[in-house]
Write a structure and sequence with these properties.
Elements lengths: L1 E9 L4 H8 L4 H9 L2 E9 L2 E8 L4 H10 L1 H10 L3 E2 L11 E2 L8
Antiparallel strand pairs: 1-3, 1-4, 1-5, 2-3
Length: about 110
């Protein structure tokens, strides 16, 4: 299992819309997240900053990410979410959510 922390910003004024969508995430999107071996997934919000935490339980993350990216309903969800989001300038070239470095963990 691998743990991930990621972050990005919401555009000014987008918080309430973003939260409303996440109160009722489309079932097909939730199913795809599970199918792609993501567990214990949370998103936190503060001052227009989002922090996500999840655990990856698969053996081929690249294939699972590609499966998720190819899913039509997930693409539709992302098309709704992207206009609300503002990725960090410091993210890697291929990232939307910027992956964070884990500096401490205690089970």
């Amino acid at each position: 299992m691998q743990r991930f922390g990621m972050t990005l910003r919401l555009k000014r004024g987008a918080a309430e819309s973003y939260k409303a969508y996440h109160r009722s995430v489309w079932p097909e999107v939730l199913e795809m997240i599970t199918e792609c071996n993501i567990r214990n997934y949370s998103i936190y919000f503060k001052d227009d900053i989002l922090f996500s935490y999840f655990e990856y339980h698969g053996s081929d993350m690249k294939a699972d990410w590609a499966k998720m990216a190819a899913d039509t309903k997930t693409q539709e969800w992302w098309a709704v979410m992207k206009p609300l989001q503002e990725p960090l300038a410091s993210r890697k070239e291929d990232e939307w959510w910027a992956e964070m470095e884990e500096v401490f963990h205690l089970d």
